[in-house]
User: Fold these one by one.
Assistant:
Number 1:
Amino acid sequence: MTAAVQRREGFASRLGVLTATLGSAVGLGNIWKFPYMTGDGGGAAFLLIYLLATLLVGLPIMIGEIMLGRSARSNAVGTWKRLAPGSHWYLVGAAGVLAAFLIMAFYTDVVGWVFTFIVKAASGELNAVDPKVGEAAFGAMVSNPWHSLFWQWGVLILVGSILLGGVAKGIEKTTKILMPVLFIMLLAVCVRSLMLPGAGEGLSFLFKPDFSKVTVDVVLNAMGLAFFKLSIGMGTMMTYGSYFRDDADIPFVTARVMLADLLVSLLAGIAIFPAVFSYGFTPAAGPGLLFMTMPAVFSSLPFGQFFMTMFFLLTGVATIGAMLSLFEVPVALFAGSGLLGRKPAVIVTTIALAVFGVPATLSFSTMADVTLFGKNAFDLYDFLSSNVILPVGGICICLYTGWIWGRERAQEALSNAGTLANAALVRVWHPLVCFVTPLLVVLVLLRGLKVF
Ligand code: TRP
């Protein structure tokens, strides 16, 4: 190990490697996207497809991306420059940094809504069984430009101040506290929801397989979700991989993160749907479910204000780790370039993200009419990152690790230079990243671009 490598900060403990990586995976994807996609896609039928997508698309790329980051011990751009000097592979990393800005811009906007709703729920303002109350509160919130910007910038300052602490004392320490807190709060809301009369209907909505609802789009949605959920394809996992300890078992950590993340998604579904059905509401998709239906659902049940506040609080808690990992991508790049120290890099990134986020946030008010390709900034940022950069990045990681590195070099890296006996696993992983995974991602990409 060279001196330069030793000086670089990383995750200090095995548990920290796990909680930080899990923290990145867990987020709005679990509490927002997963439940309604499962509902729309035929319950358990979707779950089965999502599991398959995670195994064939998500895990192979995540393993490859973390492996590259740990091998190079550098940021999203520096990793490519170190591993493939003199080539154009670093452009994959540069696109990833752009994606981090795009995702953070709309992500922090939504998290700002969540934080606002924590306050509104706690104050009792949302105590009404009529979804129109939540609807009105939501509409008033997003159409007020200064209010939205205030909360978005507040969220950025909060995340930035955690990152000022560094990798071990900032990211690792925070996720070690937040992940258990999230599980406990989620379990409490689940128990409350399951105890309601008629909870079974919600459970069967979530777990009864209905294969008649499975279409090509449902399958491709499941693959897209596997991408977004595991934070792959844009350098987040590469950056975190560069903080992994030398003795970390990459495939094992990855598998555990995937399972724990799946558990959070399932618990979110169990917290939401039995309560929704018990009070005769219909499960709406997207912001409607979280911000309009859920306040009315909670208002209907005993101790509703308490559980409503807890629900929005746990959603907020879930998003912190994801934002830390996205924010860390440009911070690691700026700090790694040698031009800035870590603290100035955090400050510069906070300001840059605040500026970048303005068009996304104002998409619901002042800038609602400003569109490109028929999309406002919020939708455009989401489209460019989720439908273009993430899949292209994923394909590049597959091709590079599978074809250029090849099995033997990957075996060396994934077995920690022969100390782990996982040759059989690498023998399964290698043909996947060479053929199966990139092929499936190409389909996601083409569908996302509406080619077919
Ligand atoms: N995985 C997070 C979620 O489910 C979001 C996220 C964090 C992400 N980092 C990412 C998505 C990188 C794509 C790429 O909410």
Note: Residues 3-448 form a domain with the Hydantoin permease fold (CATH 1.10.4160).
Number 2:
Amino acid sequence: MGKKIKFFQSVHFKIAMVFVLLLLISVEIIGAIFIRELEKNTITSFEDTMNSQVELLAANLSGELSANEAESDAALKRMVISFAKNDIFEVRVVDDKGIVRATSDVNQQSVIGQKNDIAALNDFTEKRHEEEDKDSGRRVYINVQQIKSQTGDAVIGGLYVKSDIESRYNEVSDTAMIFFTASMIAMAISLGVAMLVARTITKPIGEMQQQAQRVAQGDYSGVLEVHGQDELGQLAQTFNELSVRVEDSQETLEAERHRLDSVLSHMTDGVIATDRRGKVIIINDKATMLLGSPEENSVGKSILDLLGIQEDYTLRELLEGHSEKMITIDNLKDEQTVLQADFAMIRRESGFISGLVCVLHDVTEQEKNERERREFVSNVSHELRTPLTSMRSYLEALADGAWEDPKIAPKFLNVSLVEADRMIKMINDLLNLSRMDSQRSPLELELVNLNELVNYVIERFEMMIKSENRNYTIKKEFTQRSIWLDIDPDKIIQVLDNLMNNALKYSPDGGQITCRLLETHNNVIISISDQGMGIPKKDVRRVFDRFFRVDKARSRAMGGSGLGLAISKEVITDHGGTIWAESVEGKGSTFYVSLPYEEIEGDEWD
Ligand code: ADP
């Protein structure tokens, strides 16, 4: 917001002031010249009039002064009194002996017949000048004139006239006063007019200034009123057009930014944009998530630090490289995220490099799958090579002549058969797994009584133990209620077979195997515990991995392929359940299978 302009600083005031000052200067100059001229004219004309009148009087007095003294004094007196009107203070007549013969001053009548006491009149020389009257302090005009004899050759006396010139000056100053008052009134009126005129200029300017402020603050709602078609009117019109343009481009910009924002935030890849120095300016949610660092901390940070690659790359290499880079990030859960980062320069049309864009793609899963695939191929090759080499050596021995030996030959053939069977079993297991992986063996669901199904499996094992003369005992702890579940019975039987088999395989003869069947709120849990060798803690989770075996030699000797639990896990996961193991090394292991279970209302199958 622009600060408020003081009235004295405003254009409004300045324009009015210029008007008034111009007027003042012209009035002053005109006034000065006028008053001077007026004064000159007034005073000169007064003096001229006075001079000519005095001359005339002197001529008139000449006759009287030369006549008989007693008569003439009265006539003189009459003449001077009739002459001494309004502007004349005193008229005095002195004869050639310096005796006052007449004066118009009523208070001075006593000087008549006395010696003249006015110095100016003593020598009868003509004098015309202005002086200050000692008594009244006013300016007076003194006029001394010789009175000549009628023949005109002798000076017979003097005439002294003191007239009031002050009143002329006063007239002039009165006129000056009137002029001054008039000019003051004119000034006041013109000030008012100037203010009004200035206002018509500054009002639209003020409105424009306010509108410009609003536009600067992003408020485009106001429209300027166009006063007339002059320059200011056109300016206001242009301003209105301008603010519409600004609004339009602002809106376009906003829309563009929103679009960019929503594209960025809905992208499945992380995007980071930096400035020329590699400082992060934009980072989308996905990138923040992938990198596991909050956005506030990321903006402004160097991209090298953010990605943790400051030791491997320089900004220059990223800018020039164009290549993709693999970055491994350790996230909070101690899991590694592998990101593929593609870098590209942001270039202006001028070729100026204004920054860098980095697209992050989460390839953790891909990398893991790739690693697993490689491991799997190597595992399969390895698993097949062992039985094949042993078969080959037996077959070689037979071919070398052992086939003729009736004692060795059947034994060797038998071993070869066992190895071949083992390979077939493994291949079958692998095919099973692969079918399940590619969803090619859909579950064939049936509503089954789980209690019966588990019982059936256990009974089969009990019979097998009996027939093989072994001493395992199988203990059952089942819930009283029958549990009906939608499952694929063949596959669940396969899982249970595998778990029971493992329990027997990995525990000594004579041990007890406990099978439990229990229900929780919305799951049923089957557990199979043995009293065998157990599984080391670090391996408990890994026993479900393909080909994983705690003790390879022993497992193989027992005919295991390392795929049983992997298949079991697939089956249970397909059913929406979970499988896990708990084990104490040397004491025994428990394998749990949990399946989702919803109790059927009314239990009509009971
Ligand atoms: P295998 O055919 O080798 O038994 P599995 O996938 O069934 O393959 O089992 C994987 C590994 O898990 C076994 O090699 C064994 O080391 C371990 N294991 C499985 N069940 C048990 C158990 N009940 N007690 C101890 N170890 C077990």
Note: The two ends are 83 Å apart (CA to CA).
Number 3:
Amino acid sequence: MYICLEGIDGAGKSTQIKLLEKWLTDNGLDVEMIVEPTSSPVGVLIREMLQNPRATEPDFQKTLGLLFAADRMILKDKIVENENNPNNSNKIMLSDRCFYSSLAYQSPFEWIIEINKYAKRPDLVILLDMDVKTAVSRCEGTDQFEKESFLKKVKKNYLKLAEKEDFFVINANNGPKLVHHDIKRVLASHLGICIEGIID
Ligand code: TYD
């Protein structure tokens, strides 16, 4: 299974994904972590470019869109390899972001779909939905005002996608413990027999 956590910057994905990995492995599941942008040369370039003060400008975002799509193609081999390995029938690939980040952050929508045509779609997406002001206050550097208006658009895009693509939406404004609990509930009911009975 390929499971992805999505959310705006500062929504608490990194904390939740660590808690989730521990919970799944503690309960005997084989978990492989994926992070986008990846550590490939393209991913490294993306992280460097994200530091640019012009990063939220439309043309810059288009360049990033292309790079994210390329980074995702490099990652695809690993996902397909895992899926095709008969020893991996119980393996969970747990991803910090995926194709849907590009749909929420970059534009235009149809073009992003086109350049990501060959990217793997996750089996399940959990969206951490957080108040933009709170999320921005957790982000370091950059122009806070610019960041806030940018993330407002991203949040709106995520919520539209969530409806269209059946994401599980979790209220991430609650403390980390409660959010973790809500995520476990979603996974337990979705994975059914696989992890039934291990919720505390
Ligand atoms: P993030 O997971 O927030 O990184 P970190 O935890 O290191 O802060 O992702 C880095 C940034 O990349 C974030 O601002 C979202 C952005 N991003 C896109 O704009 N499009 C994409 O397709 C992806 C995967 C990420």
Note: Residues 58-84 form the longest helix (27 residues).
Number 4:
Amino acid sequence: MFSPNTITALRSARSVVVLTGAGVSAESGVPTFRGAGGLWRTYQATSLATPEAFARDPKLVWEFYNYRREVLAPLEPNPGHYAIAAMEARVPEFTLVTQNIDNLHRIAGAKNLVELHGNIWRVRCTNSVCEHSANAQENRDVPVSPLPPRCDACDGLLRPHIVWFGEMLDPDVIRSALKATQACDFFIVAGTSAAVQPAAGMPLLARQEGAYVLEINPERTDLSEAMNESLQETSGVALPHLFEAAFGG
Ligand code: OAD
């Protein structure tokens, strides 16, 4: 399935970074954002996943996140998530950077995980002087109620701990993703259309810095040409193969 060069490079890698997008969760039943049936086609993203929408109608925005919580709650990691977690246990330095907010990597056992876009099971206070504005809290309620939820400490509005359109990513989170990317010698990008920065630039940065770069995606993307290998396969099939070929037996 993979070229011998890919397997040799992964086997000898001291530091590995895996970057994932919605496609890695597709085989668990999570809808992707773009393409047929994509979430951003079904919903007016700009009217729901923005700070302006939340300021205008927090209840409506929370109803959207309650819907997404309901969809995600029963879903489980797939073999792709588990293969990534297994790889982490075999590589000296390993960082998983995900654009996904669904928590499935953590459920599969990922430890050194950087969540670029937040996590749907966490909430934080919108009152900037409240201690809970910087420290997101876990909230597993399905649905969250009453709407909109309020902070126990200050009665401020709680919001999902998710990066919305038009918002900056947490600079510390970006810093740790880029640091790992620059330091790695093997980089895997799986299940992302590579349409959103800064994630889209990471595979190219890794390559520039001398890493071997592998893409796994059933479709070709804007990144494919620039990769050492680009495999057109689903991550739930390809990642277990990759693990087995490099570390199995
Ligand atoms: P997209 O929906 O843009 O892209 C999903 C990618 O997964 C596509 O390239 C598909 O070809 C691929 N794919 C589909 N099924 C797959 C499978 N079984 N195995 C592997 N790949 C598969 O999702 P992202 O690239 O993750 O941001 O989107 C990036 C960001 O855009 C999201 O995090 C979200 C969105 O706006 C925020 O919400 C902040």
Note: The first strand starts at residue 15 and ends at 20.
